[in-house]
Each structure stands twice: as C-alpha cells, then as structure tokens.
C-alpha cells in the first residue's frame, strides 16, 4: 500500500464507516413504472412485504406495504444525512415537519433526544421507470449533544456548491460539497447542534464525479481526521498508483495529499471525513447512546412519549402526487422548490 492508503476492502451492507460516522446505507433501486398510487406497477408476490430487502428484479419494498420505503420509526442520539441523487423521498416527522426532496437534494436531520420520521419513495412516473439512488449516512453525536432538540434541515440541489477541476489532459472532476471545506467552498451543517456545525471537527461529505482518465488530488486535512473513500459507479481508479475497484472502500490518511486517477469509464465516489468522537458507542436499532443503561432509559422514554407522537394520517404517509419538491419546517415555514416533480 502507498503512504496515503491504510487499507482497501470490499463494501458490506450497510457500508462500513469510521468514527464519527456509524454507517452508510446505500440504496440503488431500479423501480418500475408507477401504478397510479405511488407504488410499483408490478406484482409483489414472492416478497416479504413489510421487510423486503431482497433486491428482486433490481429493487426492494423495504418496510413499505404498497409504497416502497420506511414507515414511521424513531431515532435518537445521532444524525442522518440523506443524499437523494436520483428519485424522490417523501419525509414526514413527529415535529410536524415534512417534505418531498430528491434528484440531488440532501436532508440533514439531527435526531438528538428523539424524533419519529417516515421516508417513503413515491413512484410518481406512471409512463416510465422510477430509479432511486440514495445514501443515508448516520453521523454520531457526542455525549454532550445526545439529547439536543431534534431538527430537520434541507440542502437543495441547486444551492449545493460544486467544485470543478480540469486536469492537464483536459479531463474534468466535479465535486459536490455537501459538508466540509474545498478550495473557497465552506459548508457547515444546516442543523444548529450538528457535530458538523463546528468546523474544528473537520466533517466532510463530498460527492466526486470523474470523467474517464481524469486526475484529481484530494486536499489535505489534519492527521486527527478519519477519511474513507467509497466507489459506487465506474470500473476502477488508482489511488497514488494503487488500484481500487468499484464497490470498494479505501481508508486513507487525511493528512496526505492523495492523487486519484480514474480509469476508462466515468466514476462516482463518496468521501466521508471527520475527527473521531472517541466515546463508547451503545446501539440498539435506531438508538445510539454511550451505554446500555442509557439505551434502556431511552426506550422507556419513547414508550412513554413516542417522541411527541405521530401527527400524520398514516405511518406510511405520502404527499400529493401533484406536488413538486417542498419542505414544511417545524416552525411552519414552507419552501416550495417547484410545482411539479423535478
């Protein structure tokens, strides 16, 4: 291995991450045409409806019964960063916040002391397929922030800055800066109590697109930061001359300038970086605390309060099929990005 590379390994499901991240769920579903009711125009026989992760015919229903997705469920003690590169997500939560986002948008939610939310994947197109490409990254919270108020924030695709680089051969690399610093771009999390809201934590979430044969050098961060590079589309790249194939992850030294050289196909990668929290991690499903005793207390709290209850008509709530991308925030503020599906 070169001096930049700690190790290269095959990706698991969910994707393995380094502290301060907990994991990354990668969803790449080739959903068929819609059936006019936001579900797939296809037979659901042979699927374990309610818990379908089969990937049958190139897609899954997950926990959805008629619309694919994840009906209402709780979270506490961490954050979710949901990057919807293709397709749409209908979000609803116990704060009263809601939204439809996708096709490059990012939702950033700090669960903190507790929130319920649902994430459904409405298949709006009845005359063509409805592909979905989505990442949900779980970012931990330190003990001091485990019980901060829950918060829902949006980063709209057209507002997310993109860094462009053209190498000596004329080949281009585009880097979408969801979080972190790159050149003159600095992006902090939209959630006020996020671990990424403090620049000293060096959180970076970058979406990297490289043309065939493009070359680009990752910027240097501090030696205290963990850095992982995930390849999810393309054939292979070289990292300082060492080959990494599609659906592999490289753990890198963040304080080394790392040269990426793409192969003969377009390549897409995700980079996650951050300083480790370095605290004990106790996990139970959707709850992440520092000890099992805290987990038990959190479960009892959820049983008692349901984190504010569920204000929507259904645990699999979806929005008006005619609606475009929008966000309804917990304070009643509403953003409308377009009137029809993007």
Automatic annotation (TrEMBL):
Pfam families: Pirin (PF02678), Pirin_C (PF05726). CDD domains: cupin_pirin_C (cd02247). Transmembrane segments: none annotated. Signal peptide: none annotated. It comes from the Bacteria. Residues 207-308 form the Pirin C-terminal domain. Residues 64-139 form the Pirin N-terminal domain. PANTHER family: PIRIN (PTHR13903:SF8), PIRIN-RELATED (PTHR13903). Belongs to the pirin family. This is Pirin. It comes from Roseivirga pacifica.
């Amino acid at each position: 291995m070169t001096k930049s590379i700690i190790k290269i390994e095959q990706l698991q499901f969910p994707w393995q991450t380094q502290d301060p991240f907990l994991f990354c769920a990668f969803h790449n579903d080739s959903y068929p045409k819609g059936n006019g009711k936001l579900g797939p125009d296809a037979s659901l026989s042979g699927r374990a409806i309610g818990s379908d992760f089969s990937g049958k015919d190139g897609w899954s229903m997950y926990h959805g019964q008629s619309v694919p997705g994840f009906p209402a469920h709780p979270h506490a003690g961490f954050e979710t960063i949901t990057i919807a590169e293709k397709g749409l997500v209908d979000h609803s939560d116990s704060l009263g916040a809601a939204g439809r986002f996708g096709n490059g948008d990012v939702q950033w939610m700090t669960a903190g002391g507790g929130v319920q939310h649902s994430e459904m994947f409405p298949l709006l197109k009845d005359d063509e397929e409805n592909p979905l490409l989505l990442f949900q990254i779980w970012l931990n919270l330190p003990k001091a922030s485990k019980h901060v108020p829950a918060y829902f924030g949006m980063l709209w695709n057209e507002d997310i800055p993109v860094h462009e680089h053209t190498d000596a051969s004329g080949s281009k690399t585009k880097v979408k800066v969801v979080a972190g610093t790159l050149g003159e771009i600095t992006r902090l999390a939209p959630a006020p109590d996020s671990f990424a809201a403090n620049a000293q934590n060096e959180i970076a979430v970058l979406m990297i697109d490289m043309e065939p044969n493009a070359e680009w050098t990752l910027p240097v961060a501090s030696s205290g930061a963990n850095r992982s590079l995930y390849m999810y589309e393309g054939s292979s790249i070289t990292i300082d001359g060492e080959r990494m194939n599609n659906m592999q992850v490289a753990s890198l030294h963040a304080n080394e300038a790392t040269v990426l050289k793409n192969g003969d196909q377009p390549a897409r990668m995700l980079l996650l970086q951050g300083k480790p929290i370095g605290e004990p991690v106790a996990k139970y499903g959707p709850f992440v605390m520092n000890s099992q005793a805290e987990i038990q207390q959190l479960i009892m709290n959820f049983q008692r309060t349901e984190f504010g209850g569920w204000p929507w008509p259904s645990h699999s709530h979806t929005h008006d099929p005619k609606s475009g991308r929008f966000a309804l925030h917990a304070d009643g503020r509403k953003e409308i990005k377009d009137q029809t599906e993007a």
